[in-house]
Amino acid sequence: RLLLVPLGCFALLLPPPGAAEFSPSLDSDFTFTLPAGRKECFYQPMRKEASLELEYQVLDGAGLDVDFHLLSPKGETLVFDERKSDGVHTVETEDGDYMFCFDNTFSTISEKVIFFELILDNMGEDGQDQEDWKKYVTGTDLLDMKLEDILESINSVKNRLSKSAQIQTLLRAFEARDRNIQESNFDRVNFWSMVNLGVMVVVSAVQVYMLKSLFEDKRKSRT
Description:
Structural class: alpha+beta
Order of helices and strands: EEEEEEEEHH
Family: Belongs to the EMP24/GP25L family.
Largest sheet: 4 strands, antiparallel
Radius of gyration: 30 Å
Keywords: Endoplasmic reticulum, Membrane, Signal, Transmembrane, Transmembrane helix
Number of helices: 2
Strand content: 25-35%
Transmembrane segments: 191-211
Shape: elongated
Oligomer: single chain
Mean pLDDT: 78
CATH class of the domain at 22-123: Mainly Beta
InterPro entries: Emp24-like (IPR015720), GOLD_dom (IPR009038), GOLD_dom_sf (IPR036598)
Strand order of the largest sheet: 1-8-3-6
Number of strands: 8
Distance between the termini: 104 Å
CATH topology of the domain at 22-123: Jelly Rolls
Helix content: 25-40%
Pfam families: EMP24_GP25L
């Protein structure tokens, strides 16, 4: 079961009372805004001998960087990224709540838009599905194709569809970050173009004034 709850700057491993829950899923993504000078933490319950893969990207904000921490249920730091724009981390898990935090306390002005995706493997649900399928294997000797073969084909299609959905989600995240960078560069180019235009106008006016002053007749007429 996937539970993602923002816990704030001084978050504990235990979920706060009345915490909201996301829909159970083995592959979930989330995008949120991290204000300047803030730290947001999330937790994910895991089983023993499962796998937790987490990928994050900073989509918008000055510097496109953030600090990232991943802690074990015992409070040990498993991953620490300092001022990174993206990262991918995979850990083999044990029973307990894993916490990961995004830290923007080093920034006093710029907020960050952060995207992250969780991929959970060996959580036990696929094995249960296979056991359910095996109930219907008895009495199918007359069938040309065994149900095990159908199950294998379905699982293969399911895994490929999940991988395709994951790649599309990552491509959308890359597209969003590239669009934000291009818009920022566009505004920057327009600003400096206006500054250069203003400087050129001022310099032209000064040059015209100085040229006119060179040809002025400064001799005073005598009476």
